[in-house]
Amino acid sequence: MVNAEMMKRLSVKVAGLSMKTPVTTASGTFGFGLEFADFVDLNQIGAITVKGTTLKPRPGNQGQRIVETPSGILNCVGLENPGVEVFLKETLPKLKQYDTRVIVNIDGDSADEYGELAAMLDVDGVDAIELNISCPNVAQGGLAFGTSCTAAAEVVKAARARTHKTVITKLSPNVTDITEIARAVEAAGSDAISLINTLVGMKIDIHTRRPVLGNTMGGLSGPAVRPVAVRMVYQVAQAVRIPIIGMGGIASWEDAIEFFLAGASAVAVGTANFQDPRLAQTISEGIASYLIENHFDSIQDLVGLALPDR
Amino acid sequence: MTKYLVDGTILGQRSLSPDIRVMEIKAPEIAKTAEPGQFVTIKTNHLSVPLLRRPFGVAGVDREKGSFLLIYRVVGETTHLMETLKEGDSISILGPLGHGFDRTHKNALLIGGGVGLAPLHFLAADYPGAQVDVLIGARTAKELFWTELFRDKTRRQIETTDDGTWGIKGMVTTPLPELLKEGQYDCVYVCGPSPMMRAVVDIVRPTGIPCQISLEKYMGCGLGACLSCTCSGIGRRVKVCKDGPVFWAGEVTAW
Ligand SMILES: Cc1cc2nc3c(=O)[nH]c(=O)nc-3n(C[C@H](O)[C@H](O)[C@H](O)COP(=O)(O)OP(=O)(O)OC[C@H]3O[C@@H](n4cnc5c(N)ncnc54)[C@H](O)[C@@H]3O)c2cc1C
Ligand SMILES: Cc1cc2nc3c(=O)[nH]c(=O)nc-3n(C[C@H](O)[C@H](O)[C@H](O)COP(=O)(O)O)c2cc1C
User: Fold this and answer.
1) ipTM of the modeled complex
2) pTM for the complete prediction?
């Protein structure tokens, strides 16, 4: 259990977003949080980042959507979700009962759609929006926004103009230079950056001689991507001033510490929720013990310690 | 219903056929609350290979002893690891998950193919109705241990084998029309490979007898969060892990 003393060391502020612990959940791996209520005290995690939400309901992709690969999984869920209206009417009231932060991950087919979603979600109960400009599993928009500096900046501006909430932009690792995009979204007014989304990959069934996933390609996540994620957090931390929420393959408190040292102010647990549904909460205990043992008063003292200028 | 994440203890396991095994696991939380048709997900280690937990139907419970059964076919990484577990070893269990079978009917016909018979074995043992018959679809006579497993839990066991080495040669659909005519069944329960379930549903539906199917889809979380196992239902999307795995035939359209 995390006691008051531990809690004090764990609290962080990511741009305007005050979190009790520096741990949130990666979008799409924790549903709307409520699915995990038997295993996690939702009041004890820093924030719940909910499944990618779109203007209209989406059925997602056909065929097999997840397949396991070495130390990871490929997924092509394709942003199946009930749409923002159902989220606002049915899910948000339930989430409001918990004393935690709610980050809504949003996806649009155009910059205007991101703006519209941001405006609709500028309501009580939502604490931040996360712009997913990096989904590899949808035909329109998605990744296209995340791989072009101009397109990424347009999305950020459109959302920024229509919300009072903290705006977090989620970057794609499927680029040559992650720092360019990071600078572009910072300049466009993003309050924070989260990374990484999944890496595009695929698997072929040697018996049927066909791709395994219904959508042919999918996004790789889990421990397999962790070194790539740590590297990108480390690079982005040196390129921008805005805070970073780091994620990619975090499955233990030790993994999380690496991300803080690389420059992340908070972390998100993703695929590992599928292995151990308690992790989003229990990981904070390990982080707190590490802080106490190593005489750090606050998690913030750890941020970026591995960077070259420190 | 509350779900648990617990470390179970292996009480024992044995082979039923060259590639199918039965394992008894002590986990009182699961044994006391699981209902026929529900499943658990398991993990044999704390490593990242294999990464995902794997789903298995609960094949029976001993509520007093606090243990439950899994009947599994050895097919890949996790099931190979399960095969090596010894009495006293620990295994991580998440469950009970999903919704079980509707058990408000009187006379039941259970139809299963392969390890799809595992959840039906629990249903037969815990069926409050009047009479239960089971139609067993096996590949060869080597899999007819199922008949033994069902003998004391059902009134009648009818077997079919693909190769005719035991019982009726053919598939479960071969004797099914006759059985439905004479059996006075109030409900049919089916679990097995999708093509088999579709063929069964095609035969049962015109008779008007209610039919429940138990679906199997690749799962990520088992909790309704990752949306790996969704399919189309009437007027809504359903999640096999949370809204199922048991559905009324017709409740789901594409599976
Ligand atoms: C609700 C449900 C209940 C099940 N009940 C039983 C049961 O009682 N007994 C039993 O033997 N099996 C059951 N299965 C299937 C069982 O989950 C798979 O056989 C198991 O996951 C294989 O794991 P593995 O690591 O040994 O194989 P892997 O190395 O992962 O793969 C071997 C093969 O199994 C397939 N497979 C892997 N995961 C799944 C999955 N989640 N769903 C379907 N196929 C999969 C793969 O596509 C591959 O072809 C059930 C599946 C579901 C969804
Ligand atoms: C099944 C699944 C669904 C996901 N859905 C979304 C999504 O809707 N929006 C999003 O921004 N990221 C989504 N992601 C990406 C994760 O949020 C995260 O960025 C990525 O998986 C890396 O972290 P991890 O390795 O800890 O899982 C999804 C990932 C998985 C595995």
Assistant:
1) 0.93
2) 0.95
